[in-house]
Structure formats: structure tokens, C-alpha cells
Amino acid sequence: GPFDLTIRNGRISNADKTFHADIGVRDGIIAAIGQGLPPGREDVDAAGLWVLPGGIDSHTHIEQLSGMGVMCADDFYSGTVAAAFGGTTTILSFCAQHREDRIPDVLADYAQRAKEKAVIDYGFHLILANPDEQALVHDLPRIIQGGITSLKVYMTYDRLKLDDYQLLDVLAVAGEYGAMVMVHAENHDMIRWVARRLLERGHTAPKYHTVAHDALAESEATHRAITLSRLVDVPVLIVHVAGEETVDIIRKAQQLGARVFAESCPQYLFLEAKDTDLPGLEGAKFCCSPPPGDKASQEAVWAGFKDGTLNVYSSDHAPYRYDASGKLPKGDATTFKEMANGVPGIELRLPLLFSEGVMKGRITIEEFVALTATNHARMYGLAPRKGTIAVGADADFALWDSTRKVHVTAAMLHDRVGYTPYEGRELNGWPVQVYSRGRCVVRNNELQVARGSGQFIARTRPEPMVDRKPSGKRGIFSGLVGLSSGPTEP
Ligand code: URP
Ligand code: ZN
Ligand code: ZN
Ligand code: ZN
Q: Where is this region: Disordered (predicted)?
């Protein structure tokens, strides 16, 4: 029969190739890709446009209480609307356990809130703050089997940090049940030690955030996380990689055969430490952890994306307003240590990389697709359903007009942050129509779908966790799961 939707004459790019074809969609699924397909009930001429897989943003903080206790400004409605306007059709956001919380309660709470509000598809990673016996033996296996096949752990922040013993416990369970472990790698004591001395000397301005979070804190913790993952032979994914030395450490480990994966974000390609050096507390708008470095670290991140050291490009959208509800809990008296960490970027993630990467010839369109969609699907168990334009996959794609010029302002964006660190940038190219499961989500700069129309996606085993050839020692370690959670420090 006829298609629900036919997209004609577009230039389609996947991670492996680019070709001209029509796409026929039925019941939200891509039913055919070919030449001269029959008309659809909705028939779209995409001549002159790129048709790219909808972006997958695998690192977003939405309607979440941060490690420092600050609530995000975006809920599952505004967060997913902003994502969609920027060409993203799936997000993974965090269910954040705080140490006193029961994991099933945390999940139920996030699931309910997202279900009511999301306009595109979504999944969750669990932030695990308390890997006790209950979590390791009961909760984690259950939630992984329920489609939450990834978790994030922190090596810093007082309320979230795990010690090395706990990281090993988590890795062992993740290896056993098939979940990807994302690590926020920064050395807690190095940051704390430097920050205390800065504050004692009255150095409280936002620019000292970047001094306190020295690149060595990131590279040391990254090396340690990788070493722990190698000990138990369980893959690990280092999130928000910023520094040159960190990229080198990851590359070296990969060359040794370690199954280490890594993410970086727009802020490490397009912002610099010196952006935080502004009058008053303005610099807070550019503060995230780890902090952006300099031109050399930007080049190292580009090189890491080019040679495959870095696999996924996510936003780490951390939507905090520039006021007492977010970035500045103590108003004008807020020190760098009290600011909420993180910058917004869910809507501009793809347009920034398209403009500065693809249009300027730094990366190919196929690399763009891999970094923004396909690799996320592979790393987090969304493939083959999402991340590639293929028969049988969800009809998630965006039509990009490479001739569209956009002058970035906070006012044009759909998040609730109120500022953007990319204010005033001139971008080339924009996703002008966005489809999720065959539904037109954005057209003519208007949202076309209702609140709550996005779906929870129960994810399968991440690709690095499938097909594993466990080393001899893995067998030994896996037998200890459940017995290994000895007493840990509070
Ligand atoms: O500064 C950042 N990245 N804040 C968001 C929380 C996190 O650790 O990803
Ligand atoms: Zn983090
Ligand atoms: Zn984050
Ligand atoms: Zn302009």
C-alpha cells in the first residue's frame, strides 16, 4: 500500500556512505529506500537537502538534581523540544541516585515525569552514587535487564564520588550483565586541594574554576579509570573529554587493546578557558567540568574525533540559569566552588559541528553522522533501531539545509536557560525539518507534536558488551560479583 510518508530526492548520509534516494515510511518505520518510490500521504520534496539520521544525544541532564544539589531549568518537555529543534530525535538523560535514594524509586520517578512530557524518544542512564550490596546484587541486574543498559559513575563531587574499590565493584557487575559504564574522570583531591588554597587567598571568580580543575586532574583520573577497567576486563566510556593529555592516554590504552571508549562535547571544540575570564561573574556562563582548555586542546579533541579515539559527540546539556536558581546560588557572592557546573548545548550541538566541522571541511558528512548518531546507538544499545537510515529502522531523520545561515542568540533557542555560551556565532546549515518515528516534529520553525508523544526506549546490550571474549581473569572476577561489596567508606 501507499506510504504514510515519502521523502523524495534527498541526499542521504549514513556513517558509511552517501547516496541519493527516496525514503518510504510506514507505521513509524522506514519501509523502503529506493528510486521513484510511490507517493506518501505526506509527500516531501527534499531536493537540495541532506537527509541525516536524527541525532542521538547520549549525555543530557534534564529535570535532574545535580551532584551539587541544583535543579536543572529544563524539564522533559523543554529539554526534548530544544533537542528536536536542533535535529536530535533521541536523548539519553540521567536518573540520578543520591546516596540515600532507593534505585527503583528513583527510576520510577524519572520514568513518570519523562512519559508525561517528552516529545522525542528517550532512555536513561543511572547515576549510581551508592553501590552497596542491594544495588550491586539486586537493583543493577534488574534495571539493566529492564533496558537501562548504561550507568554513570563519578570520581569527584562530594555527594557522588566513588572510590576505586567501588568502581571495581560497579565494573564487575556491568561486565556480568552487559551495561556500559560511563565515567566522570577527575581527581577529587587534586581539585579540592587547589580550590581550598585559591579560596583562602580570595580567588573566588569563575576563572579560578579552570585553575582548580587542572587538566592533570582529568588525565590522572582517566588513566586510573582505564586501569581499573583493564584489571577486570570490562569496557569503559570516559565522558566529556577535554584535555590533550587525556586524549593521548585514551589513544594509548586503545592501542594496547583496552576496550576504552570516549566522548567529547561542543564546549571542548568551541570554548576555551579564557572565556571564563570576564567581568564580575559573567564567566560562570562558560564554566563546566572538566573545563575547556585552549587552542591546543581543541585541536587534540578534533584529532581524537578524526582518528576514532573519541567515539561520541554529546552535548552534556546542563541547563542552569544565570541566577540564584542555577549558576549563582549565592547571587553576587557566589564563589567558583558554589556555581552549578555545566553549560547548555542540546539544541546547538549538531548545528555547531555541522557548520564548523562539515561545512569547513574538518570532518566528512559521514563522520558527522557517526559522531552524532550512529556511534551513540552502538555504544548504548539503540542499534539497529536508531542511528542509521535503513529499512526496518525507526524513521528518525532530519532534513538539513546547508545554505541556511543562522546568527545564534539565546532568544532563538528553546531551552529555559536564558543564555548560551555560543551567543553571536554565525552558523552555516540548519535542520529545517525533523522526523521522529515518521512523525514530523519540527517544520517551519514550529513544533508539530504534543507533549508526552515521545517514547521510552528499552535499550539492548551495548555493542562493546556483546561478543566479548572474556580473558581468563574475567571469569575469576565475575564469580566474585555479589561477594565483593565489602565495607566502603561513607
Ligand atoms: O560541568 C558539568 N559537566 N556538569 C554536568 C554534570 C556532569 O558531570 O556531567
Ligand atoms: Zn560528568
Ligand atoms: Zn554531564
Ligand atoms: Zn550575525
A: 464-490
